[in-house]
């Protein structure tokens, strides 16, 4: 497939890395020649230096025969105009734009993106994606990573194995025998920095980070089996009252659990805007690193603290201070992936990478077949892909044990009609079933082939 990616920043680079690694014909466009040089030097892509919204620049990038354009520059307006030019001048069929401004995202303006107005097929909002990720982290506080699948009926949990974990040194096949009614599957393990798909004979050791698929009704039991205590999040402190913090607070207010939320925001105007928009949340104007202000927010009694300012180091230090003051569970928003290895030494329980959430959203709309969801794990090391099985798929009509999966691929969950089940070797996959697959990055193209339709999805 011929794809043009506009914007060679972290998101654009990661998307280009994914797609070029799968032998797509990728061209990256950016006004910064240095970023283009970095992309062409490190990835198998072509690069064009210039403004993505200029028709002549898109023409040089090969827009006349491109099948898709992804506009992920720093500017909402450039992304919107790029999609308009791609549609009106070059007739590109599939157009994806990343838009940050809430004004462009409000439901009242949804008609703006119709083909006869501003022709954007898919709008990706980083702030909304990050807020959703934050709420999911809060829903499973003993895990370092989490994502929901199959309309909320299945959940991927990232669990760190501790010394006192009850299932340490136990072969995974024995877990199936010991907990025969548990609808959970270990699909990935990271050990000594390397992520792999485990086999039935593999064991879990202290220090391992494992990814477990669980039925949503079995999440609490799964966490308990892996040595984690689940607690209700009744008191939450938010550091940062920007778009992300405000969205999280609004969702917590609207949720069924009546969470008591306090927000700390340094910028006075931003704090006033949040206070006006929120009903029950207490908004404090001040520095989230101030111990006295954290004490006023009740950090020692808080069940969780979420630091979502636009500064990584502030988020990390706020989490460290909250932990020192007695907060059980802290989450940091981290833009710079090189800071992630510091999370564990600093005692930060979980983090959210905005770029990873945005990349996952964009990949969902790129994958072939009837793909319903994609989640990127780690530094683009693996993907979890949820897809409907079509009649033309090589999976249809076969038992799990009969399918020639690559070594780095495992089935996490299977939905038949409205029932989500843990698949076994003799489980038959039929047309219309929904599968959730864990796949290491190098095996994603093979997974796409297994999910492929007979006529190109696009």
| Radius of gyration over all CA atoms, rounded | 23 Å
Sheet with the most strands, sense and barrel status: 6 strands, parallel
* Alpha-carbon distance between the two ends: 10 Å
- Please name the CATH architecture of the largest domain: 3-Layer(aba) Sandwich
Q: Mind telling me the CATH class of the largest domain?
A: Alpha Beta
Number of strands: 24
Total of helices:
15
Number of structural units classed as domains: 4
CATH superfamily of the largest domain: NAD(P)-binding Rossmann-like Domain
Spatially, the strands of the biggest sheet line up as: 3-2-1-4-5-6
Q: Which percent range describes the beta-strand content?
A: 25-35%
Mean pLDDT: 88
Residue share in helices?
25-40%
Shape: globular
Indicate the CATH topology of the largest domain: Rossmann fold
**Helix vs. strand class:** alpha/beta
User: Which blocks of ≥5 consecutive residues have pLDDT under 50?
Assistant: 454-458
Task: Write the topology of this structure.
Layout: E1 2-6, H1 10-21, E2 25-30, H2 33-42, E3 46-49, H3 55-60, E4 68-71, H4 76-88, E5 94-98, H5 102-105, E6 122-124, H6 126-139, E7 145-149, E8 154-160, H7 172-178, E9 184-191, E10 194-196, E11 209-215, H8 219-225, E12 235-239, H9 243-254, E13 260-265, H10 268-277, E14 282-285, H11 291-296, E15 304-307, H12 312-324, E16 330-333, H13 343-346, E17 350-352, H14 354-364, E18 370-377, E19 382-388, E20 398-399, E21 409-416, E22 419-421, E23 428-429, E24 434-440, H15 444-451
Parallel strand pairs: 1-2, 1-4, 2-3, 4-5, 5-6, 12-13, 12-15, 13-14, 15-16, 16-17
Antiparallel strand pairs: 7-8, 8-11, 9-10, 9-11, 18-19, 19-24, 20-23, 21-22, 21-24
């Amino acid at each position: 497939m011929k794809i043009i990616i506009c914007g060679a920043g972290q998101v654009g680079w990661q998307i280009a890395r994914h797609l070029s690694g799968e032998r797509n014909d990728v061209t990256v466009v950016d006004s910064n020649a240095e970023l283009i040089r970095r992309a062409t030097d490190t990835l198998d892509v072509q690069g064009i230096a210039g403004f993505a919204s200029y028709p002549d620049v898109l023409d040089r990038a090969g827009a006349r025969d491109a099948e898709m354009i992804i506009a992920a520059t720093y500017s909402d307006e450039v992304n919107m105009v790029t999609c308009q030019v791609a549609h009106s001048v070059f007739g590109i069929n599939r157009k994806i734009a990343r838009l940050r401004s809430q004004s462009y995202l409000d439901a009242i303006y949804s008609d703006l993106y119709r083909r006869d107005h501003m022709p954007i097929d898919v709008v990706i909002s980083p702030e909304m994606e990050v807020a959703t990720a934050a709420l999911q982290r809060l829903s499973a506080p003993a895990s370092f990573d989490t994502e929901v699948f199959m309309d909320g009926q299945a959940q991927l949990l990232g669990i760190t194995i501790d010394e006192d974990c009850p299932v340490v040194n136990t072969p995974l096949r024995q877990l199936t025998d010991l907990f025969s009614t548990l609808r959970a599957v270990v699909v990935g393990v990271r050990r000594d920095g390397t992520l792999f798909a485990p086999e039935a004979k593999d064991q879990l050791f202290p220090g391992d980070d494992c990814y477990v698929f669980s039925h949503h009704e079995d999440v609490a039991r799964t966490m308990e089996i892996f040595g984690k205590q689940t607690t209700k999040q009744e008191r939450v402190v938010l550091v940062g009252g920007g778009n992300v913090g405000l969205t999280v607070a609004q969702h917590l207010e609207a949720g069924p659990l009546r969470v008591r939320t306090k927000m700390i925001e340094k910028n006075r105007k931003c704090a006033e805007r949040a206070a006006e928009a929120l009903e029950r949340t207490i908004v404090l104007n001040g520095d989230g690193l101030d111990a006295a202000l954290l004490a006023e927010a009740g950090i020692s009694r808080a069940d969780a603290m979420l630091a979502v300012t636009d500064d990584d180091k502030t988020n990390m230090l706020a989490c460290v201070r909250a932990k020192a003051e007695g907060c059980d569970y802290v989450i940091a928003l981290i833009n710079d992936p090189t800071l992630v290895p510091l999370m564990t030494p600093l005692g930060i329980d979980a983090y959210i990478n905005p770029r990873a959430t945005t990349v996952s959203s964009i990949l969902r709309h790129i994958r072939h077949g009837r793909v319903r969801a994609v989640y990127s794990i780690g530094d683009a090391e693996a993907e979890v892909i949820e897809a409907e099985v079509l009649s033309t798929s090589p999976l249809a009509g076969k038992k799990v044990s009969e399918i020639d999966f690559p070594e780095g691929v495992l089935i996490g969950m299977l939905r038949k009609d409205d029932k989500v089940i843990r698949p076994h070797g003799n489980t038959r996959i039929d047309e219309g079933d929904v599968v959730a697959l864990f796949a290491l990055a190098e095996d994603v193209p093979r997974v796409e082939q297994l999910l492929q339709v007979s006529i190109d999805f696009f």
